Amino acid sequence: MTIDLTQLPDEVQEAVAATRERVAALHAELPRNQLVVWTAGNVSERVSLPEGSDVPGLLVIKPSGVSYDELSAQNMVVCTLDGQKIVDGTPDALVPSSDTAAHAYVYEHMAEVGGVVHTHSTYATAWAARGEAIPCVLTMMGDEFGGPIPVGPFAIIGDDSIGRGIVETLSGHRSPAVLMQNHGPFTIGSDARAAVKAAVMVEEVARTVHVSRQLGEPLPIPQQSVDSLYDRYQNVYGQQATG
């Protein structure tokens, strides 16, 4: 059954519109942070549907092969969680990102994930080309990733194989980032903004650890200290909500 956005309840249409705005704006962060070239890379976000809604799960993602300076809320593509484009007001010829199946698989199998990002950022992708995890040798890594950044299996674009590798690697893992072997980093988050932050941070630590290794072997951080860093950053750091 084909879903027509205009036939969905008003509150669902409003949620989709808000998600399109966020996803379009967040794509600008990828070239701004030098994480992509040309039309590579993509950001998606799960649409937060009203509680009790009987509408199938939806995601918003970048259209395939469209230049970053041509992206707008209006040409963000809306898909179901099996990766199928709905009737979303965009031209039929405007297809979603070639990585949509991977994003959709993550959303289907990791209920806590609200955003997914893929880039080909230089240093993180260089580690992926080696099939080597980034060791936890920086306090920033303890904070952000809770340990090393793992490597996922080699998989080809075209079906949900990449998504399967992401889910298998990150399920039960504290890292919001995985280096898919010979491909590049994929990051997850509670929403698209969190996933974009993780994409920026994984490139930063990939570059720093690479530079460190040119000087000698980096010093690992003891697991107890990694755990302490992660707990503080995730639960104490920043502006805490007050009653």
What would your notes on this structure say?
This protein is of the alpha+beta class and 243 residues long. It is 39% helix and 12% strand. It contains 8 helices and 7 strands. The protein has helices at residues 10-27, 29-32, 100-109, 122-130, 139-145, 161-170, 192-215, 223-235, and strands at residues 42-46, 58-61, 77-80, 115-118, 151-152, 177-180, 184-189. Strands 3-2-1-4-7-6-5 form a 7-stranded mixed β-sheet. Helix 6 links the parallel strand 5 (151-152) and strand 6 (177-180). Helix 5 (139-145) packs across helix 8 (223-235). 40% of the residues are buried. The mean pLDDT is 96.
Shape: globular
Unreliable spans are none
Helix tally equals 8
Helicity level: 25-40%
Using only CA atoms, what is the Rg? 18 Å
Largest sheet: 7 strands, mixed
Distance linking N and C termini = 46 Å
SSE string, helices as H and strands as E: HHEEEHEHHEHEEHH
Q: Which strand order do you get reading across the main beta sheet?
A: 3-2-1-4-7-6-5
Computed structural class: alpha+beta
Please state roughly what percent of the residues sit in beta strands, choosing from under 5%, 5-15%, 15-25%, 25-35%, 35-45% or over 45%.
Answer: 5-15%
Mean pLDDT: 96
How many β-strand runs?
7
